[in-house]
């Protein structure tokens, strides 16, 4: 639990359901299949076997897909405190603490899942301007906002 940085939450009638992306991103995957995959948590994500029939699990791909159906909860979000409290409580049940860099995203539901995350005109304008920059300008822009 303390090694997971990316968590996903689903609101239910009884509270928040939380799960780390590295587990919830693989539908119908058994623990045996996960542990037998080409990637291993013990080896920090490196390929550990050369079995071509093993599943090629890659958290970077999973994260990209999960981001489409979720909204990152940043400081200032109305659910920020309740979600981080829920994550702390979940980890505490197992005598653990969440990673200090943990981030939580809320899974969108229904129509919200297929709609864009927001309609902020300023962000849309900035994105359009960014697309018009040269590669060197994009690089400099990224350096300055980091």
Low-confidence stretches: 44-48, 111-117
Q: Could you describe the largest sheet, including whether it forms a barrel?
A: 4 strands, mixed
The SSE order reads EEHHHEHEHHH
Number of domains: 2
Mean of residue pLDDT values: 78
Shape: globular
**What separation lies between the terminal Cα atoms?**
28 Å
Helix residue percentage:
25-40%
- Please state how the strands of the largest beta sheet are arranged side by side: 2-1-4-3
Radius of gyration: 18 Å
Estimated structural class: alpha+beta
The tally of strands reads 4
Fraction of residues in β-strands: 15-25%
How many helices does DSSP assign?
Answer: 7
Q: What can you tell me about this protein's structure?
A:
The protein has 146 residues and is an alpha+beta fold. The chain folds into 2 domains: 6-115, no CATH class; 116-146, no CATH class. The chain has helices spanning 21-24, 31-35, 59-68, 80-92, 111-114, 121-131, 135-145, and strands at 6-12, 15-20, 70-73, 103-107. Strands 2-1-4-3 form a 4-stranded mixed sheet, with helices on both faces. Strand 1 and strand 2 form a beta hairpin. The radius of gyration is 18 Å and the shape is globular. The two termini are 28 Å apart.
């Amino acid at each position: 639990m303390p090694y997971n940085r990316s968590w996903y939450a689903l609101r239910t009638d009884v509270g928040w359901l939380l799960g780390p992306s590295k587990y919830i991103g693989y539908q119908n995957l058994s623990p045996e299949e996960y542990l037998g995959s080409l990637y291993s948590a013990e080896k920090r994500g490196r390929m550990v076997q050369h079995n071509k029939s093993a599943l090629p699990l890659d958290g970077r791909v999973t994260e990209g897909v999960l981001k489409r159906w979720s909204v990152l909860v940043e400081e200032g979000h109305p659910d920020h405190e309740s979600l981080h409290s829920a994550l702390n409580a979940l980890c505490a049940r197992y005598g653990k603490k969440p990673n200090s860099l943990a981030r939580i995203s809320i899974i969108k539901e229904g129509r919200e899942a297929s709609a864009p995350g927001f309609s902020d005109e300023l962000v849309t304008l900035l994105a359009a301007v960014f697309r018009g920059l040269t590669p060197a300008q994009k690089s400099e822009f990224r350096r300055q906002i980091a």
